[in-house]
Design goal:
Chain A has about 120 residues and is mostly helical. Chain A is about 40% helix and about 0% strand. In chain A, helix 1 packs antiparallel against helix 6. Chain B has a 5-stranded parallel β-sheet, with helices on one face. The chains are: A mainly alpha (about 120), B alpha/beta (about 350). The complex binds flavin-adenine dinucleotide and iron/sulfur cluster (SF4) (3 copies). The site of one iron/sulfur cluster has 14 residues of chain A, from helix 2.
């Protein structure tokens, strides 16, 4: 008899969001150039109206929320922002907080370029 | 007993706040002149069906007010709007369409609020699609003819409520929360389920703000007893299909996935905005620059309108509030007016 019982669970490293060791440099940089972004209430209007998000896994709200939590964007298992966002600006028309979301998208693209280079795709 | 026999007070507005103010002032023996632009008292309650939190009928509350205002000496001037107050020494002169209609030692302004004009949020299609209605529209339908919700005799299959329409919305120029639309949506959703038990009822919310006494309980009852579905996401747009049903788009933010739903009726939970019939007071700027509601001299302790001796405010003319809050503020304004007149 083995001392350890197998309950059928596996322990996954990295599932827990670790706010203690979060590198929030991207979020800080973005909040500086798009200050209204801090007022996002995660209402989902941007993602609901986004033409790019209807058929593929791209979700603009989730993406910028992940950045706020300092989770790496590029390690996400859905298509990267760089290829999905059409920069159509529809999200900006519906945002109740008046966040310039299209500009936010451009800023994320620009600021994550170097991340894309240093972090290998998963 | 507070004795206000020498004092003449005018109350403008005969909704719950004005009624409470008039009754309280009369109970202190003040000489009360009571105005409303409409021919009957009651304010918004006249068009409401049931009320949160306990779902008493609005007519019950109205009847209670009528009984109490009839039993006490109050001079009623219904059908007269007061648009302007001018200060002349210590006298306050009341004007209706530039004609003097009276004077008073103190005035309580209780002119209430307006419903947000949902046409301004074009993406929801109010005024464009017949089956997009507002919460006050639904209130009237529930009160007068709920049969109107049937379509060619058939029960509606699905109905959705959109929270925060014209509140918390910079695009509409309104950043504040209207505080009561969440619980209105919950109450109305229950009303629909009682009429049409098999109807699918879905509320789209950003945050559920059920702050008042009995509100959280009603929310839970809506979930447990009435099986109303609450989806955390704001509807971004509505359109009409060929069967004249309304197609909604939202994000289910908890799933992080876009969502669609087709409904027979879409109900917009409109916010509360400053009344367009607010009283002008001399040439004084007495409303909050950002919200447009009257501003008290002190948000904690005072119902005197900022900067104006002798003029007090009560009810939703000072911002979104519930009926019990409006009634309490009407009473306290009468009390403050008495104190002001006694001390001056
Ligand atoms: C859809 C909806 C549903 C609601 N349901 C509930 C509920 O179930 N329970 C609850 O507690 N609260 C409810 N409320 C809140 C409720 O409507 C308010 O608390 C209440 O109406 C405030 O009373 P009031 O006297 O301040 O204003 P009002 O009811 O707006 O009354 C103001 C009165 O002043 C008069 N007036 C305005 N201008 C002038 C003028 N210049 N001269 C003379 N008269 C004037 C108007 O004709 C009106 O009679 C609801 C709100 C909404 C938006
Ligand atoms: S700008 Fe990008 S994120 Fe915004 S709606 Fe268009 S595709 Fe979606
Ligand atoms: S629409 Fe605006 S407030 Fe809503 S989730 Fe998107 S960015 Fe945030
Ligand atoms: S009470 Fe609810 S629906 Fe109304 S504005 Fe506030 S959060 Fe939105």
């Amino acid at each position: 008899m083995a001392g350890k019982k197998n309950f059928g669970f596996e322990r996954h490293a990295g599932r827990q969001i670790d706010l203690d060791h979060a590198d929030n440099s991207l979020a800080t940089e973005l909040a500086e150039v798009v200050s209204a972004w801090s007022a996002c209430i995660s209402c989902g209007s941007c993602a609901a109206t986004c033409p790019a998000g209807q058929n593929v896994g791209f979700n603009f709200r989730r993406l910028h929320y992940k950045i706020k939590l300092s989770l790496e964007v590029e390690t996400d298992n859905y298509p990267s922002l760089l290829t999905s966002c059409l920069l159509c600006g529809k999200c900006q028309l519906v945002c109740p907080r008046g966040i310039p979301t299209r500009y936010l998208s451009i800023q994320i693209m620009q600021k994550t370029k170097h991340y894309a280079e240093v972090i290998p795709p998963v | 007993m507070l004795d206000g026999r020498e004092y003449r007070i005018t109350v403008i507005g005969a909704g719950p706040a004005g009624a409470a103010a008039a009754i309280s002032a009369a109970a202190m023996s003040m000489e009360v002149d009571w105005y409303d632009k409409e021919n009957r008292p009651g304010g918004k309650l006249n068009d409401y069906h049931q009320l949160f939190p306990d779902r008493a009928t609005a007519d019950q509350i109205l009847a209670d007010f009528d009984g109490r205002t009839d039993a006490i000496e109050i001079k009623k001037h219904f059908g007269t709007a007061v648009n302007r107050i001018e200060t002349d020494n210590r006298q306050l002169i009341l004007l209706s369409d530039n004609k003097i209609v009276g004077s008073a030692d103190a005035v309580i302004v209780a002119t209430g609020f307006d419903f947000f004009d949902a046409r301004l949020k074009e993406e929801f299609g109010y005024g464009i699609y017949d089956h997009v209605i507002t919460s006050p529209d639904l209130e009237k339908i529930l009160k007068t003819n709920p049969e109107d919700l049937r379509k060619e005799g058939a029960d509606p299959v699905s109905i959705a409520f959109v929270h925060c329409v014209g509140s918390r919305d910079q695009q509409a120029g309104i950043n504040y929360c209207s505080r009561l639309c969440c619980i209105t949506g919950i109450r109305q959703a229950i009303g629909i389920k009682e009429l049409f038990p098999s109807c699918k009822v879905v509320n789209f919310y950003i945050d559920i703000r059920a702050f008042g006494s009995g509100y959280e309980e009603l929310y839970r009852e809506a979930q447990e007893k009435y099986k109303i579905q609450f989806i955390r996401g704001r509807v971004s747009e509505a359109s009409e299909n060929q069967q004249h049903r309304i197609l909604l788009k939202a994000e289910d933010t908890l799933m992080a996935r876009p969502l669609k739903l087709t409904v027979d009726w879409l109900v917009l939970l409109v916010g509360m905005v400053p009344s367009c019939t607010q009283v002008q007071i001399d040439n004084h700027q007495c409303t909050d620059q950002e919200t447009g509601f009257y501003q008290p001299v002190n948000v904690f302790t005072g119902s005197r309108i900022a900067g104006l001796p002798g003029i007090f405010m009560a009810g939703a003319c000072g911002g979104p509030m519930s009926i019990p809050e409006a009634i309490a503020s009407g009473r306290s304004a009468a009390m403050e007016a008495w104190q002001y007149l006694k001390d001056r």
